[in-house]
Amino acid sequence: MVNPLCDPLVLTTRLLVKCKLLLFWALVYTFCGFTAWLASLKLLWHIIRNPAGTFQRVDRQTSPPCLNDTSLGTHCYVRIKESGLRFHYVAAGERGRPLMLLLHGFPEFWYSWRYQLQEFKSDFRVVAVDLRGYGESDAPIGRENYQLDCLITDVKDIVESLGYKKCVLIGHDWGGLIAWCFAIYYPEMISKIVILNCPHPTIFYDYMVRHPSQLIKSSYFFFFQVPWLPEFVLTISDFKVLKYLFTSQSTGIRTEGCKMTADEIEAYLYIFSQPGAFSGPLSHFRNIFSCLPLNQNEVMSPTLLLWGEREEFLELRMAEITKTYVRNSFRLNIVPEGSHWLQQDQPQVVNNLIWAFLKGVDQ
Fold first, then answer.
1. Residue 74's beta-bridge partner residues?
2. Which end of the chain, N or C, is more open, meaning fewer C-beta atoms within 10 Å of its C-beta?
3. CB-based contact 174:273 (threshold 8 Å)
């Protein structure tokens, strides 16, 4: 009998796996170095051109009125027994109704779901949570506290701590990645899942390493691996990057009537101007490459994937092939003129599509 450990085919397969892993990490570290170098040059040029403006920051000690709008819901906190962490969330709708849990993306917080809190409270207990490290939720020190397993467990613990066994789970961007993973590992806790502008994590991993165009669009993933520099770059010129992301013609919210007001922009700046506000969110990214690809991939829950037609950071092809891993009903809706910030940019369209999916109506 041939020893499996000496079988040439087995040895060749193992060698190929190791080579693939080596090439992947070589790509990661090389691209991290390149993006850090490029960002440093841009930062230096910015300082030379406008040294005073680069370090300008407004002292924000009072939250904008929009964050205290009672029509959006009630501010609440839940402390998780196992981890000891306290999570902030805003809830709308009567207790006892089915739970709809909303997970925001980066760089966002619960307020990105303001339109959905108002829309779905008639039929659901709608809960928009600040993820670990964001907003008023606890932000443990150390990147090891932001591994994907921790973030997935947070969702499970929050659902259970709220007194539920199942929920409708909706996630956008990074919250979408967590929602995908939660659906994979805890299918019994999901009735239906809705994802906005986030492909299946393994699709994202495989596609990114094979398509230079997506690699470039995802360059911020690599830049965020660098210590302290991203935290500083995101705050220069009184958070110029954040303002650009949400208001520019290329990446911002463009729909008339939904463009961010000065008060809403100030809400984001207030949240991310708090001491250490970017450390937790960036720690999410700093664990991602050690977590992908996933060791499980199949999604057993009915799934709706919503995608902005004018998505700037992710290529549409990833949305189209995401159905590969869904072993239940799968809908993909491309929202015309929708940006990456889909639930804020096209709230009525998004809400209607979610209602139709929840009620089983074809769109």
1. 91
2. N
3. no
